[in-house]
Predict the structure.
Amino acid sequence: MLTCVVKMVLVGFQALFLFCVCYAVVADFRSLLIPNWITVTLGAAFVVFALLYLEPMTAIWHVVVALAVFCLTATFFAVNWIGGGDVKLLTATALWAGPQHVANLLLMMSALGFVLAMVLMGLRTHDTFIAPWLPDNMFLSRLQTLAKQGQCPYGVAIGVAALIAVGNTFLQ
């Protein structure tokens, strides 16, 4: 009975993580803004998760990893390479990833961000050639708008990488 309750609570944490990250991806794609409540929720949920399921030293290492990611991404923010929401989202997802999964998170985020940037640059440079061939839908229209404005919703790459690198680790 107790293991069933433990698994149900873990599924709840996983569902909350998935919801917050998916919401961040959609919000960043639609408006280039990641609401603060998402990162606050991810951070607060991790504290509860750590108190319930992690050894103290393991939780400390998760925090150390998140602080290192924050310092690095805050530098990127200072030179205007990424937005503040991206810094907060990546820090919150790195907190969940911890030392075991942060390398996968960062590598996947970099690869996905590269692909996203290349798609946007391709649309921006070759819009007159590509546009007539694209079907008319909201997703592609938004991509074209972002490309014309020279903007990249990097939260999309961060979120998808987090879902892949961290999303399935709760039940292992």
